[in-house]
DNA sequence: GTGAAAGCGCTAACAA
DNA sequence: TTGTTAGCGCTTTCAC
């Protein structure tokens, strides 16, 4: 057979089948009315030539390309991936192909990508990023719909799908209350980070609804294990007693866990511990395994993609949509894991 | 202005500028010889209409789409990402757009993507995956060049760019020897995993070159921290003395580190410790920070993309290409970090 | 220096 | 049932 030199065209197929291109087109797309024998003959010719219709030429008529662009505003990372995957999954099911564009925190590069995507006549775009903060819209009066996923647009009229971080923080607190803890500390990331502020505020608020408050003001620091360990030092140096720690991330929680153990406090007997993000690497390696809040990023991405598909089909969903978080219980908050191992 | 209803065509631009479409085309692409005034007038009209030439229509002539497909054979994960990013980076610089296709370990899905990409007339494809093992070629006699990155093709004639894991393992051993250790243990992932076997064999071989051997047969297990901790238990239960541990991954090394500390052995004074992958999450959280081997996946992806670009331009690089690994020294092998902090 | 016309690969009217 | 034709948006001869 040898390596094919060029793609077969529908003219090649028509010639081989001994019909006109119009007939070949109908046969391959199931349009018009043709003799079954003719249809088969054309199909067979197409198969023989490994014919795949040129999508570009095709979209010249339909006006649609069945492609979408995904732009990450900052470098692709641990949070963008599941979002991208969820979106890719939902779009693939919708027969859409996805252009991946890594913005790398560079607005110039980002605008370049927007132009490129428009020249490729994508049917829509998804914009995502590493942080949940609002960002400037990627463009004004774009000729195609845009959905922001994880990150949100500063324009409230734009469609944004964001994790319900406040709801997640409330679930964390409610879980700690449900297992009988009332003296709760909160250790989290840097105060300038939107997620840290939102989660801390929501936790405080939820406690207030039960007439409680954090045993100490939230400890803002970094998102790292190192900070988790340091923060425990600070907490223990103070006189405040605590029977639970709600952490702004799993990495922090892991650091907290290690430091508590080193200080002779047992988890969960003396201190119940809950993280945020439900990152398997951390929740599994933690001793004991870590209870956490799952952002369901893949579901979020899928949901964003579905909204984009709807918008492309003329039914936009303007505004900010909060995607719910899930509580995942493990042994850092309850003695025995509630999950029953499979037999 | 209001939301644009449709994309402007070159006919719109020509009409607004009061010239023919042919002239407009020349003006916008810098072809032919036109009066400077005309050129400017057309450019201005294009700007006013936010005109972006339809790439699909354009490629109808050029025969090239300036797009490539990236297919991950299995789910996109920690190893595929940097490869994808490096490739996207190199391709973007080459004015190429990238179609992202997540194979999800499903051969059916994978073949579906290959067909889709061919119908979109991509100029080439990059195939990647989570493991370094060889895999069946993605297709035979494809009309466009294919480069395998990280993963490799079972067909030795295909172009594959893979990390030089054996070289990395040798560098790890050489570093341990250089810091004066000779009684080296090796703890790594499952024996059925290609990377585990290759790294263990290379380490053994390198030691043999100096008339040495591992203090015990390689301990194969899982890639997790949990296994690292368990393995230390096994090692200590045996009578064999050791002054260094070479681990098959950073997660294992981290587990080893924690367990050694718990057992009263100091790192690096009593035991020097080196990991593999140079995963920042682990190397930084480890106490002390972990020396490791970096696969330079982003560089590998970039290199693969460049080979693809070359192949598209008629200069293929058939065969298997080993991409070198880098040693990154931190405090788990030397008392004071050799990296000088910036002032 | 500019316009008219053909053609890239395909689909969809309309004829035959 | 099938073939012919026009046209999607663009580039590129070739006349003028």
Automatic annotation (TrEMBL), chains A, B:
PROSITE patterns: HTH_LACI_1, HTH_LACI_2. This is LacI family transcriptional regulator. It comes from Microbispora bryophytorum. Gene3D superfamilies: 3.40.50.2300, lambda repressor-like DNA-binding domains. Signal peptide: none annotated. InterPro entries: HTH_LacI, LacI/GalR-like_sensor, Lambda_DNA-bd_dom_sf, Peripla_BP_I. GO terms for molecular function: DNA-binding transcription factor activity; transcription cis-regulatory region binding. Keywords: DNA-binding, Transcription, Transcription regulation. Coiled coil: none annotated. It comes from the Bacteria. The keyword Transcription applies. Residues 8-62 form the HTH lacI-type domain.
């Amino acid at each position: 057979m040898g390596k094919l030199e060029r793609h077969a065209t529908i003219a090649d197929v028509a010639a081989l089948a001994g019909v006109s291109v119009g007939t070949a087109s109908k046969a391959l797309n199931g349009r018009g009315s043709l003799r079954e024998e003719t249809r088969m003959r054309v199909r067979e010719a197409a198969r023989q030539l490994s014919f795949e219709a040129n999508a570009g030429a095709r979209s010249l008529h339909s006006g649609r390309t069945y492609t979408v662009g995904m732009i990450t505003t900052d470098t692709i990372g641990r949070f963008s991936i599941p979002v991208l995957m969820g979106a890719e999954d939902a779009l693939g099911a919708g027969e859409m192909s996805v252009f991946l564009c890594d913005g790398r925190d560079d607005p110039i590069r980002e605008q370049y990508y927007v132009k490129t995507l428009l020249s490729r006549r994508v049917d829509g775009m998804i914009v995502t990023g590493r942080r949940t903060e609002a960002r400037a819209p990627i463009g004004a009066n774009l000729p195609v719909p845009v959905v922001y996923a994880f990150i949100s647009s500063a324009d409230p009229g734009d469609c944004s799908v964001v994790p319900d971080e406040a709801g997640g923080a409330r679930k964390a607190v409610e879980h700690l209350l449900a297992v009988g803890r009332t003296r709760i500390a909160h250790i989290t990331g840097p105060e300038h980070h939107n997620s840290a502020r939102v989660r801390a505020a929501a936790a405080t608020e939820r406690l207030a609804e039960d007439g409680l408050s954090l045993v100490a003001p939230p400890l803002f620091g970094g998102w790292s294990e190192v900070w988790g360990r340091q923060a425990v030092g600070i907490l223990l140096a103070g006189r405040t007693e605590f029977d639970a720690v709600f952490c702004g991330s799993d990495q922090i929680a892991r650091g907290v866990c290690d430091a508590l153990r080193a200080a002779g406090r047992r988890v969960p007997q003396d201190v119940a511990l809950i993280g945020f993000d439900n990152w398997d690497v951390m929740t599994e390696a933690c001793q004991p395994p870590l209870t956490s809040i799952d952002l369901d990023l893949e579901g979020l991405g899928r949901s964003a993609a579905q909204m984009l598909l709807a918008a492309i089909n003329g039914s936009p969903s303007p505004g900010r949509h909060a995607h719910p978080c899930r509580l995942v219980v493990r042994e850092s908050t309850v003695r025995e894991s509630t999950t029953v191992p499979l037999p």
